[in-house]
Design a protein that fits this description.
single chain; about 230 residues; alpha/beta; TIM Barrel; nine-stranded mixed β-sheet; about 20% helix; globular
Length: about 230
C-alpha cells in the first residue's frame, strides 16, 4: 500500500475515500488488457463471491482525499486508470472521484459487481459490470435494472465456474441481447473450469462474446499490487 497522503487526515469527510492500495501495473482483462494502468482499489464490498481474489480489500484501508488520489494517479504518467475494489460504488464518493479523474484527461474504467445502481456514473467512464453467475454464490445480488443503462462504451463480464454456469450465462446474453448493447466478456474461474473447455463451448455455440484470460494472473499469479 502506498503511504497515505499527508493531507488526507485534514480533508473533510465529504472529500475522502478509504483506499486499500494504488499501484501501477498492466491491465489484465477487459477491453484495455495490456495497457499500463493505474489501479485505485477502494476498500469494502457487500458481496462475498466464493472465488474472490481480493478479499484483502474487504476491511482496513486508509483515508485519502480525492485531491490526493487524483494527484497520485497523475504522478505515474500513464493515461489509463481503473477504479476497482472490493466494490468501489459501495463508497458514495466514488462517483466524485470518477468524474475528477475524467476531468484530469485520463481514460477511466470502473470495475463494479453489478449489484449497485450504475446510473449516476459519469458517462465518460467505461463501466465494466460483472453479472454474477450461480457458481459465484451471489447471483441473487444482480441488479438487472443496470443492463438497459449500458452503452457501447461499457462492458459486461461473466466469470464462469462450470458447464452449468456457462449455460446460464449464455442464456442471459441471449435473453438481454447483451452483445448488441456492449462488449461481453467470458472468463474461466481459476481452478474451476478449464480455459480450453470454456473456449470450446463458446466456439461451438458461436456465442458473440469475447473469451479472456486474466493476463495479470498469468504473469504474477494473485500477488497483491500487481
Amino acid at each position: 500500500m502506498t503511504a497515505v497522503s499527508p493531507d488526507a487526515a485534514a480533508a473533510s469527510n465529504a472529500d475522502r475515500l478509504k483506499l486499500t492500495e494504488i499501484f501501477l501495473s498492466l491491465q489484465g482483462e477487459a477491453r484495455d488488457a495490456g495497457w499500463p494502468t493505474v489501479f485505485v482499489r477502494l476498500t469494502g464490498c457487500p458481496l462475498r463471491c466464493q472465488y474472490c481474489d481480493t478479499a484483502y480489500a474487504f476491511h482496513g484501508g486508509e483515508w485519502w482525499s480525492i485531491d490526493a488520489i487524483v494527484e497520485h494517479v497523475r504522478s505515474f504518467g500513464v493515461r489509463h486508470v481503473c477504479v476497482t475494489g472490493g466494490e468501489p460504488l459501495a463508497q458514495k464518493r466514488c462517483l466524485e472521484l470518477l468524474s475528477r479523474l475524467c476531468d484530469a484527461g485520463l481514460a477511466v474504467s470502473l470495475e463494479t459487481s453489478g449489484a449497485i445502481d450504475v446510473s449516476a456514473v459519469d458517462a465518460r467512464v467505461s463501466r465494466v459490470v460483472d453479472i454474477k453467475t450461480p457458481g459465484s454464490q451471489e447471483a441473487h445480488r444482480n441488479r438487472w435494472e443496470n443492463l438497459p443503462l449500458l452503452t457501447a462504451h461499457d462492458q459486461v463480464k461473466f466469470v464462469i465456474c462450470g458447464r452449468d454456469d456457462y449455460a446460464w450465462a449464455r442464456d442471459r446474453v441471449r435473453e438481454h441481447r447483451l452483445d448488441a448493447r456492449c462488449d461481453v466478456l467470458f472468463s474461466p474461474s481459476k481452478s474451476e473450469v478449464s480455459p480450453t473447455d470454456l473456449a470450446d463451448w463458446i466456439v461451438a455455440d458461436r456465442l458473440p462474446v469475447r473469451f479472456q484470460l486474466q493476463l495479470h494472473k498469468l504473469l504474477w499469479n494473485d500477488e497483491p499490487g500487481r
